[in-house]
Amino acid sequence: MKRIVLTGGGTAGHVTPNIALLPSLKEAGYEVFYIGSYTGIEKQLIEDLEIPYYGISSGKLRRYKSLKNLSDPFRVLKGYFQARTLMRKIKPDIVFSKGGFVSVPVVLAAGHKRIPVIIHESDMTPGLANKIAMRSATKICCNFPETVQYLPQQKAVLTGSPIRKELLQGNKLAGLNLCHFNTEKPVILVVGGSTGAVKVNNAVRAILPELLKDFQVVHLCGKGKTDKSFENKEGYVQFEYISKEMRDLFAMSDIVISRAGANAICELLALKKPNLLIPLSANASRGDQILNANSFKKHGYSAVLMEEDITPETLLAAVRDLYQKRMTYVNNMALSEQNDAIGKIMELITANSK
C-alpha cells in the first residue's frame, strides 16, 4: 500500500481541501498521514476523521516587523528537523501540501529526502509559504488561470480547488429545521471564514431589521464572535462554526455573503450559489482576497463590495441587487470550466508517487 503525507494548516482553508481528497485517496489505496501544528485548527479536524496526526513546531512567516520574527525562525528550524524524522518514520511515497506556515518545514524535509511533493496554491498569487515551498515541489496546482504566470512553467498545473463531495449532497429541509426557518422567505447565508470577520459581522447586524423584512439570515460568526443581544431573534440564527451540517446550510440558502478566501469562493462556484464577496482589506492582508474577488467578478460569478465601501446603505443595496439578479450568476457559474479538481489532482498524485 502506498503512503501519502498531507500537510497544511493555520486556517480551515488550508485543511478542508486536504479533507476533500481523502475519499479518493483511500479509494486509490493510499495510507494517509497528516503533519500539522501542535494546536492549530487542522489538529481537531483531522483527528476527528481518525487519520494519524503528527504535530510539529511551527512559526508564522511574516512580511512585517514583529518581535516574534526573532524567535519563529528557530521554531521553523525545529519543525524542519521534526519533519525529517517523520519522513524517515512514515516513509511516504509522496507529500501533498495545501500551504500555510506549518507546511514549509514538511515540504523542505520531503525535498531533502527526495520525496515527490505536490503543492496547491489557492490564491491568485502565491503566498510566502508556497513561494518558499515551490522550490522543493514536483508540481504546483492552482485555482485561477491568472496564477500560472507566477509559477515555474514546467511545474504549474491548473486544477481548481478540491471540494468536499458531501457539500453537493445537502438537504434543504434539514437546514431549515436546524435554523428553525420556514419556506416563506428566502435565506441569506453569511460566512466570515473559520475565524470570523468582525467587520462583516457588524455590517450585517447593522442592517438586520431591514434584511429580516424580506429574508431569513443564518450567520456563521467565527469562534467567540456570536452576539447574545441577537439571540432568539425571529428569522436570524448565529453559529460560531459549522462543519457537518454546512452542506445543509448551503442547500437551503438562496444567496451567500462571504469573504473571498479562495477555497470558500471555489465552494460557492461548485455549488452555483449567487454570492456577494467582501474581500479582506489590503490594509489587513497581502490583498489576495481582493484579487480573488475581482477575478470572480470579471467572470460573472460574484458581486463584490469592498470592505472600505461598506455602509448600511451600500450593503443593503448590494444584497437586494444580488437577489434580483441571482439567476444570472447561477447561469454564469454553470459555464465554468474549473471543475473536477479532485480528479486532476489524483492523476498528479498517482503519476508522481515514487
Give a verbal description of the structure.
Belongs to the glycosyltransferase 28 family. MurG subfamily. The protein is 41% helix and 16% strand. A seven-stranded parallel sheet has the order 3-2-1-4-5-6-7, with helices on both faces. Strands 10-9-8-11-12-13 form a six-stranded parallel sheet, with helices on both faces. By secondary structure, it is an alpha/beta fold.
Summarize the structure.
The protein has 354 residues and is an alpha/beta fold.
Spell out the key features of this protein.
alpha/beta, 2 domains, six-stranded parallel sheet, 354 residues, Rossmann fold, seven-stranded parallel sheet, 14 helices, 13 strands
How far the N terminus sits from the C terminus, by CA atoms, comes to 12 Å
Q: Which superfamily, in CATH terms, is the homologous superfamily of the largest domain? A: Glycogen Phosphorylase B
Helix content: 40-55%
Poorly predicted runs: none
- SSE topology string: EHEHEHEHEHEEHEHHEEHEHEHEHHH
Strand content: 15-25%
3D shape: globular
- Can you name the CATH architecture of the largest domain? 3-Layer(aba) Sandwich
Number of DSSP strands?
13
EC number: 2.4.1.227
Membrane topology: Peripheral membrane protein
Domain Glycosyl transferase family 28 C-terminal: 187-336
Subcellular location: Cell membrane
